[in-house]
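Data card: per-record layout.
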Amino acid sequence: MPTIFLPQDPVVIAVFPHRSLLDGPRLAFAFNRPVLFGVDPDYSLCEPWRSLLLTIGAITGCSMVPMQPGSSQGLRTMLRSLRSGPAGRSVCLFPQGGIDTLTDHDGARWLARTAGVPLMRVDLDHGPGARKVRWPSVRRYAWTSTSD
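The structure for this 148-residue chain is written out next.
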């Protein structure tokens, strides 16, 4: 049952913090419509993760694009989706780039500003402890500004 309701037109979704391998799958089931996820190539292109993520996508309608360092192909795919109006898909990113990294990158804000779409922030709650495999709950979500 969806718990995060997205508008008809595409938006950029920035998710904080990224602490579990299950963050993406949890969100795929939480959104009320299919979303395009930017995914680390170690998971989007390599087995067994690729098959698992494709299976989740078959169930939820969500899809993924590899975010290769040094390549803009993933960003171009996201921009095309965001600029397609109601026919496009919202894009979900983890601005920290990896699990338990301490740096927030500005790519989600840049992507929303460049595509001319709203930015939504989703905060996850992973509970106590520091396990990489934990089903998070959605603590809150809110619209945020894309201006500098």
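Known properties of this structure: Strands lie at 12-16, 35-39, 63-66, 90-93, 119-125, 137-144. The first strand starts at residue 12 and ends at 16.

See the next section for split statistics.
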